[in-house]
């Protein structure tokens, strides 16, 4: 493994053995960069089970490390023929990250991030979260024997996700504010000596684990699709996928790379707004609101890299309304048997919208990355009266319903 940590702004190098989240010189985000990729021996990949650690030569963890794993990665890539037909598409796949151990894609980053925390001698870890990050970090820190602190916006986290953090033993700090307030506070705390190790996506080791979804798509399809669509909140995932795709090309495993399409909810869309206006900065959303709690973020940390990923790949960042998200969630579940949380369903809503507009060609091969299991954020669906019929406890009443 030959890699360095470099600032994406000024290029300053940082040591792999130090706790560094942002550049100590200019405050820019840090990125792990591998050198001599063409010389990397990856011949053994095909002999290993599909999952994050299949690609350990491209993960910045020293050989012999105590890897903290719950069997993450190796999620299904499901061909969705019924849904493709409805949307007028030739080929549509869903990479269902809700099949990860804690039910979301965050596990890919946490297996690497928590492993690194142990290597650095950390006794505790922390994060700010809209839900999935806290659930994942709580589980992986429990596995590692580390104390875990999660900071959440009070009253704005799905019950299923909060339950996971509670049952895994995390210390939960509820902030009277939104996710951006919680993020600001944990970043400030991380600057202080003796603080817990920060494991939000500002941490470059998180991105390294998350990039493996791109490797898996390539292995499962035996090629790359023409379009990859994914939800965008704090934008760590689109950043990670693009990094993984670039590394595949550097390894000689891919030539043409797919267009990346990021989807934000209309009520929390600072990156989409910047993309649409051609800006090189984002205007944070002061009060982000959307039913898709996982992407209800007004000031995303990775906005710069998300814009670059969309632009460099020839893709875009688009928005969808909450109503479109809920329709797409039901459509995916009722047509393909895949139940995802609202944020994940934004990808299906985005494909539907962009196909109607002609930005997506019906003949293109499309992969939607759905990032979380539907049971994690089920309130909107559970309260819906749709599909329910009352019956009396009699044969006649039940038969009347069955023969309607």
Give the SSE map:
Blueprint lengths: L2 E5 L5 E2 L15 E5 L42 E3 L1 H7 L3 E6 L9 H14 L4 E5 L3 H13 L2 E7 L5 H9 L3 E5 L3 H12 L6 E2 L5 H7 L1 H10 L5 E5 L4 H15 L8 E7 L4 H8 L25 H11 L2 E5 L1 H15 L5 H16 L7 E6 L8 H4 L12 H8 L2
Parallel strand pairs: 5-13, 6-7, 6-9, 7-8, 10-11, 10-13, 11-12
Antiparallel strand pairs: 1-2, 1-3, 4-5
Helix pairs in contact: 2-3, 2-6, 3-4, 6-8, 7-8, 8-10, 9-10, 11-12
Number of helices: 14
Over all CA atoms, what is the radius of gyration? 21 Å
Shape, per Cα inertia axes: globular
The level-1 CATH class of the domain at 77-102 and 206-382: Alpha Beta
CATH architecture of the domain at 77-102 and 206-382: 3-Layer(aba) Sandwich
CATH topology of the domain at 77-102 and 206-382: Rossmann fold
Order of helices and strands: EEEEHEHEHEHEHEHHEHEHHEHHEHH
Return the structural class. Answer: alpha/beta
Beta-strand percent range: 15-25%
């Amino acid at each position: 493994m030959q890699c360095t940590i470099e600032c994406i702004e000024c290029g300053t190098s940082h040591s792999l053995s130090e706790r560094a989240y942002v550049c100590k010189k200019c405050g820019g985000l840090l990125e792990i960069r591998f050198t001599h990729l063409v010389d990397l021996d990856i011949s053994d990949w095909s002999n290993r089970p599909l999952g994050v650690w299949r690609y350990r030569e491209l993960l910045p963890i020293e050989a012999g490390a105590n890897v903290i794993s719950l069997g993450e990665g190796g999620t299904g890539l499901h061909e969705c023929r019924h849904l493709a037909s409805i949307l007028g598409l030739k080929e549509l796949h869903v990479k269902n990250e809700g099949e990860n151990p804690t039910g979301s894609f965050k596990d890919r980053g946490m297996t690497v991030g928590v492993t690194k925390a142990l290597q650095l001698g950390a006794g505790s870890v922390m994060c700010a979260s809209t839900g999935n990050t806290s659930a994942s970090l709580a589980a992986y820190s429990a596995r590692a024997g580390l104390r875990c602190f999660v900071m959440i916006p009070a009253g704005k986290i799905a019950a299923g996700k909060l339950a996971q953090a509670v049952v895994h033993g995390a210390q939960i700090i509820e902030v009277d504010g939104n996710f951006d307030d919680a993020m600001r506070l944990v970043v400030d705390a991380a600057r202080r000596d003796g603080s817990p190790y920060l494991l939000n996506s500002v941490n470059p080791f998180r991105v390294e684990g998350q990039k493996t979804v791109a490797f898996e798509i390539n292995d499962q399809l035996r090629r790359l699709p023409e379009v990859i669509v994914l939800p965008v909140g704090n934008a760590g995932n689109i950043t990670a996928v693009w990094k993984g795709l670039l590394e595949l090309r550097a390894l000689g495993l891919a030539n043409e790379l797919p267009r990346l399409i990021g989807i934000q909810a209309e009520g929390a869309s600072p990156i989409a707004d910047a993309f649409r206006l051609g800006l090189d900065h984002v205007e944070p959303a002061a009060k982000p609101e959307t039913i898709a709690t996982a992407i209800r973020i007004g000031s995303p940390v990775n906005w710069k890299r998300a814009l670059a990923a969309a632009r460099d790949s020839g893709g875009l960042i688009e928005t969808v309304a909450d109503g479109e998200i809920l329709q797409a969630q039901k459509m995916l579940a009722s047509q393909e048997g895949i139940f995802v949380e609202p944020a994940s369903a934004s990808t299906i809503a985005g494909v539907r919208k962009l196909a109607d507009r002609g930005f997506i060609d019906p003949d293109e091969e499309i992969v939607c990355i759905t990032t979380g299991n539907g049971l994690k954020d089920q309130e909107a669906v559970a309260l819906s009266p749709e599909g329910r019929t009352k019956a009396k406890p009699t044969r006649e009443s039940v038969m009347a319903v069955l023969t309607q």
